[in-house]
Amino acid sequence: MSGEGNDKFKWAHILEINVMPTAYDVPADKLIDGIKDYLKKSGIINLPIFATYSKTGSQAERPPLDPDWYFYRAASILRKIYIYGPLSVKDLSKIYGGRKQRSFYLAHSQPAGTKHIRKILLDLEAAGLIKKTSSGRELTGKGKSTVDKISSDIFDSLKGKIKAVEKLGIG
After folding, report:
1. What pLDDT sits at residue 107?
2. Could you tell me the pTM of the whole model?
3. CB 80 within 8 Å of CB 135
4. HSE of 124 in the Cβ direction (CA atoms, 13 Å)?
5. Which of 109, 9, 117, 119 is nearest to 59 (CA)?
């Protein structure tokens, strides 16, 4: 039992090291907003013509009302690939799918449309943020460092506003 006390001192020097915040350390909505702004300003994601009038899938009744929905979806896809590892188009289609109401029958889940997902993945691959593997798309070193830099900026902006962030000792 005397070894437990020594463990606290053993790891004390590690707690003092400044660790760079990652996507796990910041709120998802703020991270997606930051990635969206980066993708839009840098021109990595080009808004295709069909994005202004198309629905996100057969489960949706109308196209999205937000004109920036395509950039939000691209940022969300980049975050999902960061968090959940290699993801295929089918996996992303299941994630972004929804409930399809079928008149008086019971509702069933319906996967999202895949055209906008494929187009976003192609744009992210062309920018070098993700790469295609046999198990799906995964982040490259450039993509991981980009998301980490954006999350670090968000974490620094939250430091003064939220007291719990200061107690973490990160950054």
Report:
1. 79
2. 0.81
3. no
4. 34
5. 109
d(CA 70, CA 52): 9
103 close to 61: Cβ distance less than 8 angstroms: no
* Neighbour count for residue 168 (Cβ, 10 Å): 13
What phi and psi values does residue 138 have, to the nearest 5 degrees?
-135, 160
Segments of the chain with pLDDT less than 50: 1-2, 8-15
**Residue 1 neighbours by CB under 8 Å, 6+ apart:** none
DSSP 8-state secondary structure symbol assigned to residue 68:
T
State residue 14's pLDDT score: 45
Tell me the two tokens of residue 144: 């991981």
Helix extents (H) in the chain: 2-10, 12-15, 28-42, 69-84, 89-95, 115-127, 141-159, 163-168
Backbone dihedral region for residue 136 (phi beyond 0: left; psi -120 to 50: alpha; all else: beta): left
According to the model, what pLDDT value does residue 162 have? 67
